[in-house]
Amino acid sequence: MSASEPELPLSQPLRVAALASRKPTRFKLIPDAAQRAAIAAVLDISAVHALRFQGELRPRGRNDWDLEGDLEAEVEQPCSVTLAPVVTAIREKVERRYLAEMPDPEGDEIEMPEDDRQEPLPAVIDPGAVALEALALALPAYPRAPGVELGEAVFAAPGIAPIRDEDLRPFAGLATLAQQLDKGQKGDG
Fold first, then answer.
1. Which of 41, 62, 78, 83 is the most exposed place for a label (fewest CB within 10 A)?
2. Residue 175 resides in a domain
């Protein structure tokens, strides 16, 4: 991490060169209240009530490493409709594979690797940074309070019939038409 980059609230850097090459290195991260508040600020959510990331970093072959961990968290976000607090429990299995010889992308277009857990092997692996990334990806994009539904907004100039969501679905009436035709055929026979 360079001097210009801010330190992550859950940072626990592990230098790959210093890791045991024959046995796993275990980690268990449980941030205190101040760290959880900093994580909530970084993720731009209301609160992180609980967070635990535990697992191990294992050597794979001569130069590669596997990180496996279990992320458990309880977060609070505002409801995307009412802004009421929504508490979500998150449980995720986190896996990363760090490859010493990651193939370089070729050509103008870059394809994502088939296994999205693969990353180039850095000099330092930070389970805290992995936990923050996994938590950010696991957060609900549009949290909703129980029982809250998104209503329909209808706008139109005076004297013009508004277009509703149903009007924009050209095939929505086909199911009803098919049922009517089916009933008509049964009534004929």
1. 62
2. no
Domain that holds residue 53: 14-138
3-state helix, strand, coil split of the chain in percent (to 5) is 25, 30, 45
| Residue burial 100-123, b: 16+ Cβ < 10 Å; e: rest | eeeeeeeeeeeeeeeeeeebeeee
φ, ψ of residue 132 to 5 degrees: the values are: -65, -40
User: Over 50: is that where the pLDDT of 93 sits?
Assistant: yes
Work out how many domains the chain is built from and give that number: 1
Q: Is residue 8 part of a domain?
A: no
Whole-model pTM?
Answer: 0.72
121 Cβ contact list (under 8 Å, min separation 6): 16, 63, 64, 65, 98, 99, 100, 102
For 106-153, what is each residue's pLDDT tens digit?
Answer: 666 666 556 678 899 999 999 999 999 999 999 999 999 988 877 666
Please give the distance of CA 73 from its chain centroid, rounded to a whole number: 13
The C-alpha atoms of residue 71 and residue 54 are separated, in whole angstroms, by 7
In a domain, 181, yes or no: no
Q: Is residue 49 part of a domain?
A: yes
> What percent of the chain lies above the pLDDT cut of 70?
80
